[in-house]
Design brief:
This protein has 2 domains: about 120 residues, no CATH class; about 230 residues, Rossmann fold (3-Layer(aba) Sandwich), CATH 3.40.50.410. Helices cover about 45% and strands about 20% of the residues. The protein contains 11 helices and 13 strands. A hairpin with a 2-residue loop joins strand 12 and strand 13. It is elongated, with a radius of gyration of 35 Å.
Length: about 350
Amino acid sequence: MTWQHAGTAVVLALLLVPLWLWAAVASFQRQRVAMNCEHLFGHQRHRPDDGGRSWRQLTFWLPGTLRCLGLACLLVAVAGPHDWYDIELVDAQGVAIELVIDRSGSMMNDDYVLDDRRVTRLDAVTDAASRFILSDPSRSARAHDTIGLIMFARYADRVCVPTLDHEQVVARLDRIDAAVDYREDGTAIGEALALAVADLESLQESLQEKRVERDLSRVVVLLTDGQNNAGEISREEATALAVQLDVKIHVIGLEPASLRSEPARQRVRSERTKLAAMADATGGVFFPVGNAEGLQEVYAAIDRLERTNVGQQPHRVRHHWSVSWFRIGSVAYPPLLGIAFASLVLASLLRRSLYLSPRAT
């Protein structure tokens, strides 16, 4: 059995139950004397020692004891006693993912449409990435995914270390702005990738130090709309590091909604070829995207691709004694709240009927 933290007030109140019981006994002692006196002076034909004590006198303590029992059960229920039941073994899936997202100045272009309104590329990415992170709450496998977040423009920044707290990652993602200052603008793809690979390697080493037997699948999901033109680490060097450490890289190549000039189309095709080669070298996939709907479909596809079985774990359910039957040893007891309610109601009924003081009648 596990107990939730019970406040000092609850513990002290529970210690007062014996005092209440003592007071109840004293009260019923006085009531019994009153009943004896009434019997003696109201019926002169009987002598005090005509017969033994009545059943009411012998059980005068019952209503007060029931009230104490009800109070004790209520106080224990407040403390939150519970235990855990193992329901069944379920497949536990999980993967360590680093989201690496471009925040260069071009991500401020509002050439994407989301929910019938024009939005910037960064807004469309934020919406799609948030859906990917949170996924469907009914799918328990998502709870085992470790997700980190890196943003980059001229420099790469670790926004959130890999964590199981997905809400925290989304909160950090929502606060990201594009680099509007020319001193921050740029596209350091290689540096961002190297930082993501280093984070994933650190996570693996941390698990090994803790002797966690888990063959961790590690994935980087890179999203960019530009060419590598900043940073001290080249894209090729970062890709080689990922291959060496067995880190897969999926690449989402964000394209303008429309390309009118031939030189612009050629630049996009050239960049697409380089990004595809980088993903292919690590066992990943390159996804070209030209609109918000396609962006959401790509993240959904990556979500389906990256489901790694990490063994079976018992699905455990918390069993609260306050509202469910529980066992102590080999004896089963009804819920504490049920015992408390029944005891208090029965005590009140007995006080108002069978144990009503003769003076009240």
